[in-house]
Amino acid sequence: MASTVAFHKNARNVFFHILTVCNLKCRHCYINPEQHGLEMLPAKTIKRWLKELMHEKNKTNLIFIGGEPTLHPDLHALIKAAGKMGYGSITVDTNGFFFNHVLEKVTPEDLDYFSVGLDGSRREINDFIRGKGSYAKCVAGIKRVLEKGFKVSLIYTVSQWNLRDLKHMPALLEDLGIDRFFIQVIGIRGRSARDKKERLQITRREWAAVVPRVAERAARLGIHVTYPKVFLNKSEPFECAGLVAENYFVFPNGRVYQCPLCEDFSLHSYVFEQNRLTLRPPITEKNLFELSIPEGCVMNKLIQPGNLTYDKQGKPRYKIACCLLKEEIEAYRLALA
Ligand code: SF4
Ligand code: SF4
Question: Quick one: fold of 3-329?
Fold first, then answer.
């Protein structure tokens, strides 16, 4: 059974974009250089910011992300430094190319997961979205990283380009020996927001018909699956992570957001000033979190209202959940008769 993962009041997540450059040009990439900058942060600055973002009492999970974080020549040293600082878990989000010999410079003890992005069970589908040759390179990278004893989680971003292919992913994960699967939903942000003609978002009906079933099939194969909740029934409570949880999305230009949907706008709650995390004056995303509307998430209503539908009285048929609220299915295997 899928269960909703409630926001943990004392858990903190730091998504640290240590650079924004990438070797790929995925069609759905949300990185927006105008808003997030183009610089590669020096290791010295990253370490200072990591210290500032740590919390002595509450477990802080760290995700190194980009761009492609393995393009940073000091990533290995940053992983080790974060471990010494006491981060509760360390993950590297990567496209699977593994630059700068990072796999030779860290050990499975240094980090919890490499989280690898792959958007198709076959070359044709993945390479249409992520670029020619990326499927072969990513799958080879996954095999190499597993052989070295690291743990791997796979992220698949569902859009109209690959919704019908999702059902083939559990078998691929089993073949590769991956036991964690994160099914992400496309957001209308960054590059995908620029194409106004193509409808990439998934409707509620499409989501409900495909994603939970695929998640269930993967769980039966012994794979732990997580996916965004997205749609709430009227009876389900709405919570905004900006008000009840601690998430920090850090960018190289010093902006720190609490909500991913705000990242295309200058609405960030904090900014690094002289290497100190500094609260910005209003109006920021924090002020928007407090607006209570019948549609649920206020940022969804502002920037991607296409996924809302209304009844004849003009009332929303459902609420949109916080984009940070996830469903989770524990892995299990059916006993053979
Ligand atoms: S691998 Fe990630 S950062 Fe790079 S282009 Fe694709 S989505 Fe963007
Ligand atoms: S996605 Fe919506 S509900 Fe979640 S933090 Fe952002 S504004 Fe709040």
Answer: TIM Barrel (3.20.20)
